[in-house]
Design goal:
Distance between the termini: 45 Å
InterPro entries: FkbM_mtfrase, SAM-dependent_MTase, SAM-dependent_MTases_sf
Protein name: Methyltransf_21 domain-containing protein
Helix content: 25-40%
Strand order of the largest sheet: 1-2-4-3
Order of helices and strands: HHEHHEHHEHEH
Organism: Haematococcus lacustris
Pfam families: Methyltransf_21
Structural class: alpha+beta
Largest sheet: 4 strands, mixed
Number of domains: 1
Number of strands: 4
Length: about 140
């Protein structure tokens, strides 16, 4: 499990998953130090951890298009709050749509109301602020 400190802790958190071994994990900040055209993040509710590991990349470089899974059930099952995840994307300046990279773009409140506020699973299409400023 990605946020486990060791194999024993991972086994406790695994639930129905089988821990088959260990692997080395690197943050995006440790391997990417340049602009990125597009990035897809779909890690079963651990998307906030990926954003944390890409903090410098997202703040100092440009990830022009970012598509992230937004699954409220998986976020909550991994002790993450959907509203904090949406606010982090907003803090980074991204315009966010649940339809496409062309919009319509939604406010954080609108994003959190997808599925009428019930548990919801969709992709969020995030556009870097400089691209949105360049459009007439």
């Amino acid at each position: 499990m990605c946020d486990a400190a060791n194999a024993e802790e991972a086994a406790k958190k695994a639930g129905s998953y089988v821990v088959r071994g260990t692997m080395q994990v690197h943050t995006l900040d440790s391997v990417l130090k340049r602009d990125v055209k597009a990035m897809k993040i779909d890690v079963e509710g651990f998307e906030p951890l990926v954003l944390r590991g890409a903090k410098r990349l997202l703040e100092e470089h440009r990830v022009w298009y970012l598509m992230v899974e937004f699954n409220t059930v998986l976020l909550r099952s991994n002790a993450r709050k959907p509203e904090e995840f949406v606010m982090e994307l907003t803090r980074l300046g991204y315009s966010i749509s649940s339809s496409s990279f062309n919009g319509p773009f939604l406010s954080p409140a609108e994003l959190l109301q997808l599925g009428n506020g019930k548990d919801h699973n969709t992709n969020l299409f995030c556009v870097h602020p400089l691209l949105r400023q360049a459009k007439p």
